[in-house]
Design brief:
Largest sheet: none
Strand content: under 5%
Number of strands: 0
Order of helices and strands: HH
Shape: elongated
Structural class: mainly alpha
Distance between the termini: 76 Å
Number of helices: 2
């Protein structure tokens, strides 16, 4: 009960008739560049998050050491 290959071909033909091949090519290019930009932003965000975690870990350790020293006194 799925979609057959002929139904997909008919739908594709209708879409090409409505939009034309040039417009579909432009839409495909725009989608590709948007996906690439999204992937680059995700990688950059991961790098920034890793850097911020490294600096936060140092601060947390210093705070724990200070707290322990205060408890002993």
């Amino acid at each position: 009960m799925g979609i057959s290959i002929w139904q997909l071909v008919i739908v594709l033909g209708i879409v090409i008739l409505l939009f034309g091949t040039k417009k579909l090519r432009n839409i495909g290019g725009d989608m590709g560049s948007a996906i690439n930009s999204f992937k680059k932003a995700m990688k950059q965000g991961e790098k920034d998050a890793d850097k911020s975690l490294e600096t936060k870990d140092d601060k947390v350790i210093e705070a724990e050491v200070t707290k322990k020293e205060n408890d002993k006194a």
